[in-house]
Design brief:
By secondary structure, the chain is an alpha/beta fold. It has five helices and seven strands; from the N terminus they run E-E-H-E-H-E-H-E-H-E-H-E.
Length: about 170
């Protein structure tokens, strides 16, 4: 656990937020994170984090904000998070390319979620349509999904109380 060894010097209840952006963090190094249940905000940027690593993160019952960048996770990992982290208010899966439409089924169970960032995931309009029932969402970020202006407008109309952050790629003729 070379990358998280510094946590041993801190009292478990002294950490509210943790930023791990070194890019080399691996799943096993997250095994000791459960001792820091007071963490409310966690940012991890590493292509080496998989669904197995999310099982460790799922033990953080106090977590409210989770930002996973460029992780090699799938809808199965998202399901693990949704089952355990029911109090999440903000979730970013930016650059998690293997998170596909199947993850929508788990995401809709996060009833307190107000911010969801799907930038650079494998979501399509099919999965996004399933998210339109998420009435607590205030912000949905769908940058990099290749949506047309018409698709963005339809999503915006289906979620009138949610700000949709997107860029469009023109409409099919």
């Amino acid at each position: 656990e070379r990358n998280l060894a510094f946590l041993g010097a801190l009292a478990p209840d002294s950490i509210q937020g943790l930023l791990l952006e070194n890019g080399v963090l691996v799943d096993d190094e997250l095994a000791s994170i459960h001792a820091y249940d007071g963490i409310e905000s966690l940012v991890i940027s590493s292509p080496n984090i998989t669904d197995a690593g999310l099982e460790h993160i799922a033990s953080l019952s106090g977590l409210r904000e989770l930002i996973l960048r460029d992780a090699a996770i799938t809808h199965a990992g998202v399901a693990t998070l949704a089952e355990s982290l029911t109090d999440l208010t903000s979730l970013s899966l930016e650059g998690c390319e293997a998170v596909l439409d199947e993850a929508a089924e788990s995401l809709v169970t996060l009833e307190g979620l107000t911010h969801l960032d799907l930038t650079g995931t494998g979501f399509t309009v099919i999965g996004l349509d399933l998210l339109t029932d998420m009435t607590t969402l205030e912000t949905l970020v769908v940058v990099g999904l290749g949506l047309t202006e018409d698709q963005i407008e339809a999503l915006d109309a289906a979620m009138p109380d949610c700000t949709i952050v997107a860029e469009h790629h023109g409409d099919a003729a």
